[in-house]
Design goal:
TorD-like_sf, mainly alpha, DMSO/NO3_reduct_chaperone, 252 residues
């Protein structure tokens, strides 16, 4: 099952759409090294997976849909902690899914009740010791990128799920809604900056707290993988930016 209408309908964002001109099958492939292909194919979906599982109570349909989605499989295999999450999501019989859903939904409820270490405390302002109006900084960053989140509940703009969905949206815009290499680079640079100035400054601490707070294979797998993936993602963004800049210069 692809990343199609059923999943897109659950997205919380409202943002300006532009006519697709650059896609992963034309302009980027002209300048992207082969080593980046696996990363590019999976990173947007991986960020969306995090936005869903860390931002809402799992549903049986959500578990089932992700258990059939193989697009992030190669990316998971390339990361040490990814194999743990892969085995949790993908090596299941269909008959096992209701039991997995019930267990993980109960665990989500438990984790959201833990103010000190659970999903309820998954906010950048709390883990960085910032004031409550710090959310205005995040909402300003989103607005600069033309993105306004339509919240499903009481999520704050600095909640981990919102920040990770922001990265998912930027990836989609970069790959499918860019007018040129220049506009793709603008989206890419926004992602680099957001990782450097926000996610990498607090998400590892959140991951450590979540790992210590749960025995769930799903949520422990999510925490361990996120801690490994974020610095890797920044490294790959920098590599791809260099390739895009070199390719753009060669066309001049």
């Amino acid at each position: 099952m692809g990343y199609g209408s059923s999943r897109a309908s659950r997205n919380r964002r409202v943002h300006t759409r532009r006519k697709p001109i650059m896609t992963s099958r034309n302009a980027p492939s002209l300048v992207v090294p082969d080593a980046c292909e696996r990363w590019l194919e999976g990173r947007g979906s991986l960020y969306q997976l995090y936005a869903e599982f860390l931002g809402r109570r799992p549903k049986l349909s959500m578990i089932a849909e992700w258990s059939l989605d193989r697009r992030i499989g190669a990316l998971l295999d390339g990361l040490d902690s990814g194999r743990e999450l892969r085995s949790c999501l993908y090596t299941r019989n269909a008959g096992d899914l209701p039991g997995i859903w019930e267990r993980e939904a109960q665990e989500y409820d438990r984790l959201t009740s833990l103010r000190a270490a659970g999903l309820a405390a998954a906010r950048e302002s709390e883990l960085r010791g910032e004031k409550e109006d710090f959310c205005n900084v995040l909402s300003g960053i989103y607005a600069e990128s033309g993105i306004v989140f339509k919240k499903c509940g009481a999520e704050a703009d600095d909640h981990i799920a919102i920040e990770l969905e922001f990265m998912s949206i930027l990836h989609e815009e970069m790959m499918f809604n860019s007018f040129s290499v220049r506009s793709a680079l603008e989206r890419l640079e926004t992602q680099e900056k957001f990782l450097e100035e926000h996610l990498l400054l607090w998400a590892p601490g959140f991951c450590a707290k979540l790992t210590a707070a749960t025995e769930s294979p799903l949520y422990r797998g999510l925490a361990r993988l996120l801690e490994e993936f974020l610095p890797y993602d920044l490294e790959m963004l920098r590599s791809w930016r260099a390739a895009l800049e070199a390719g753009s210069a060669a066309l001049v």
